[in-house]
Design a protein that fits this description.
A six-stranded antiparallel β-sheet has the order 1-2-3-4-6-5. The chain has a single domain, classed as Ubiquitin Conjugating Enzyme (Roll), CATH 3.10.110. 27% of the residues lie in helices and 21% in strands. It is of the alpha+beta class. It is built from three helices and six strands, in the order αββββββαα.
């Protein structure tokens, strides 16, 4: 399923995370089905913990990996609505949620993803999303008020 080049790239991705100070995240191989994922806990400036889970698609690095927040679940809006019930939401910077109710963070559009983007940048965008989410919880304002989309900055 995985080429040697992909396996080598995933080993490099793990090293980048460690070398760039993202040591709370790692790339893992599940030997039972030979799949890969990256994950770890992120702690917000307010001290809340969020578990980030990124299953690596078989088309990586050319294919964009999804990034989910799996804990806490459900992840709620300011008004108490599960974010996953919003589906794709520009206001909340989310993509189609996982069937398990996990919120999928919008980090790159498929059309803008390319093999030069490293997983460390995906986790960096997730950390920014988390801080914007906490501002949403404090103010009720949309995440889009705190985080610009790529179309706005391109």
């Amino acid at each position: 399923m995985w080429t040697q080049g992909q396996r080598d790239r995933l080993a490099v991705e793990h090293q980048i995370l460690q070398n760039e100070g993202f040591t709370q995240f790692s790339v893992y191989r599940n030997p039972s089905d030979d799949t890969y994922y990256a994950s770890g806990y992120a702690t917000s400036n307010a001290g809340r913990n969020y578990f980030l889970y990124m299953p690596i698609p078989s088309g990586f690095p050319a294919q964009r990996p999804p990034l989910y927040i799996t804990d806490p679940i459900p992840l709620l809006t300011y008004n108490g609505t599960p974010i996953s019930s919003l589906g794709v939401s520009h206001a909340m910077h989310t993509l189609t949620p996982h069937a398990g109710g996990w919120v999928q963070v919008c980090h790159w559009r498929d059309a803008r993803w390319h093999s030069g983007i490293v997983l460390q940048k995906v986790f960096l965008k997730a950390l920014i999303w988390i801080e914007a989410y906490e501002q949403h919880l404090a103010t009720g304002r949309d995440l889009a008020d705190f985080v610009r989309s790529m179309a706005e900055v391109a």
